[in-house]
Write a structure and sequence with these properties.
about 30% strand; alpha+beta; eight-stranded mixed beta sheet; about 160 residues; binds coenzyme A
């Protein structure tokens, strides 16, 4: 077990910071986490560079004590926001990191004036998204050999447009 993992399992909760990705180096960390979770862990895809969407919208990184521990992305299509690539590195799950990432992405979408937010949830994570206010639409379907569920949540757009 590494020092980091042993700290993670200690009782003391640690502060989670979720920040917009601002530099090419930070975007490379996003790709490392996507690779670690969606390729090496889940064997879902080896393709983690998702353009042109990665160049638009908002990518975020979650940080604990200077360590990048999770990521997520939101893009806009008219007044619909779409969330994708939400991943928390395995040793850091179950500590509120995923929720913090989602809340940041949703806040940004509301600031941009989005009225709904949608995503394709892996069905094992349905409950995670349900707790964040998402409801399933339609039936589960298979994508890259993993069962998914389309989900949606209404938003309350706020007036201040633009800020990250
Ligand atoms: N099943 C049921 N409940 C879950 C859950 C799961 N798989 N994952 C999280 N939850 C619940 C937590 O218990 C917590 O509930 P609470 O608020 O009542 O305490 C709440 O959701 C928030 O959990 P959190 O600790 O913020 O989640 P996390 O940091 O572990 O992140 C994932 C959740 C899904 C992002 C993470 O497990 C992950 O990266 N998985 C692999 C990649 C993946 O599947 N991503 C989703 C692609 S659609």
């Amino acid at each position: 077990m590494t020092g980091i993992e042993s700290e993670t399992r200690s009782a003391q909760p640690r502060a989670i910071r979720v920040e917009p990705v601002r530099t090419p180096e930070e975007l490379e960390i996003v790709y490392q986490i996507r690779r670690e979770v969606f390729d090496q862990e889940q064997h879902l895809t080896t393709w983690v560079h998702d353009y042109p969407e990665d160049g638009a919208g908002l990518n975020v990184l979650a940080w604990i004590d200077g360590e990048a521990v999770g990521t997520g992305r939101v893009t806009l299509w008219g007044d619909e926001a779409q969330i994708a690539w939400v991943a928390v590195r395995k040793p850091y799950r179950g500590q509120g990191v995923g929720r913090a990432i989602m809340e940041r992405l949703i806040r940004w979408a509301e600031e941009q004036g989005a009225r709904t937010v949608t995503l394709n949830a892996q069905t094992h994570a349905r409950e995670f998204y349900r707790k964040l206010g998402f409801r399933p639409i339609g039936r589960p379907f298979s994508m890259a050999h993993i069962e998914h569920q389309f989900m949606e949540r209404e938003l309350h757009p706020v007036q201040t447009k633009g800020g990250q």
